[in-house]
Amino acid sequence: MANLLDVHETFGENRRSGVESETNTSFTRVFNVNFDGFVVNLNEVLTAIGIPNVGDYYIDSTTNATVRTKEVVEKDGTRSHFNVIVTYDSEVDNTTGTINPTNPLGDPWKISGGSRDRTVAAAYLRLADAAAPDPPEPVRNKAFDDFDPVPTKKSNDISINLSFNYAAIQWTLIDLQNSVNIVAIDIWGKTFGKRTLFLDSITFSGYQSRAGVGFYNHVFRLLYRVESWDLNLANVGFNELAVAGDPKTKRRIRLKGKTPTQIAQPLDTNGQYGPNLAVPVDPTEITVDYELPTAAYSAFSFPTTPQEG
What we know:
This protein folds into two domains: about 1-95, no CATH class; about 105-230 and about 290-309, no CATH class. It is elongated and about 90 Å long. The protein is mostly beta strands. Helices cover about 5% and strands about 40% of the residues. Strands 1, 2, 3, 4 and 5 form a five-stranded antiparallel beta sheet that branches. A hairpin with a 2-residue loop joins strand 9 (about 185) and strand 10 (about 190).
């Protein structure tokens, strides 16, 4: 998975421009976006932290211009360095052709999203056509050797960007970033289970003004992981306990023929290797979390239903 390295606005010829007509004002900004590897999904570029979202206001004008389009242009052949061209246009009343000076603190929430690719190791699965071993064993070929490299599968986290205007910077909410939701929560018509959302970042604009009202636009970026942000670890090892629960009796696991294992083997809840027991048992799965802090996401007052408009 490519990791975001840098986002910065470019300046100079044709890098920032504005056009004013009798009824409309538009702006263009260009951003450099750099990753440390090959980007598969261009939506990662469009939604990179630091790139304005559709609907965001132009930061240094009072024309009500908002982001209407974002365009990705690859800079070289590496698929890791890009320009993002952001265009703004002023809000215009379709009937009168005049700017609509609405109170920015009354704007509805806005949402955008995408996905972030990641790779997951398929560490302890069985071959599809193989009889289920008892206890289960790591993924191995027909000669019972480990695969090299270890087989992996693609997965992804869904990124959700929620934007809202506040009269002041919300420092109390900003302190809650890098947390997971402590209980299930409804957002934009979907119920997200507890510990499935990670508050990746909160960005906020500089001071803006519209219709004589000052505001700061905030963007909350959530990462949704369907299987939760807990980390599931296979209960395997090279050693077992001769006496259940007694670490002083730890010994090397020996397989049939009394050969010390060179591959991590499944253990039971007592830290013992199943086949060595009088009654063989299946291994257990230990579930631990990343020890991320939890937060009551009700503090954000995220919209439970869509607020398009």
